[in-house]
Amino acid sequence: MFKFALLPVVAAAAILGSTLAAGAQTSSMSLSSSMSSMGGAEHGMPEGTMGGDGVTYTGAPDLQGAVSLVVAGGSIGHFSITKAITALAGAATANAEVAKLTKQYGAAKVTSFVTVQNFAVDDAVKVATAAGVKFPAPAVKGGALALRVTKLGLVNGTYYEGTMLDHLVSHKIHEIVMVDIDNKFGAAADGNYHRIADQAHVDLAHALGVNTVKLAAYH
Hints:
Layout: H1 9-19, H2 21-37, H3 63-72, H4 81-89, H5 91-105, H6 107-130, H7 142-152, E1 154-155, E2 158-159, H8 161-169, H9 171-185, H10 187-207, E3 214-215
Parallel strand pairs: 2-3
Antiparallel strand pairs: 1-2
């Protein structure tokens, strides 16, 4: 269960850096092996801005953004991206987006995206809680939360899911979760998750009137 308490973000970053050291080292070893087997690809996609990871961010995470997004998606440990989008932009926008993505990518890939996205959030919560991270009480909702989360993923105006995750939960937890996804669902499903997430966040930003957010080449 989440531990809600006011904690300076800098202190949280220190906790992440020390408590997750062993886990990050293990993840790095698994990641190196996975990358070598895929010919330099990372999590089933090209590295950096050629894929869905964008530019690495290693600063303090936005714990308020993280906890607010988790709660928007339902009960702790049972995150639903469809519930989250509904909470962020309303049922009409959420339904229209699911229909749009299904037409664009196909039902199977969208179903995989939803499954992996939900797992990623729940896994990040599990890893952070085990590390002793204390989250503030959720305080951001609706469109404000949608724009806050999307802005965390921007690199020169282009949205990248990986950059957003670095800002939201820290680069260390992001990498641990990505390795967990690769192990559970396969690297191709990980890449598919990033691709559709990039598109979904851009669509959401545009639906909320922020048309300057650009789509990554990997989508």
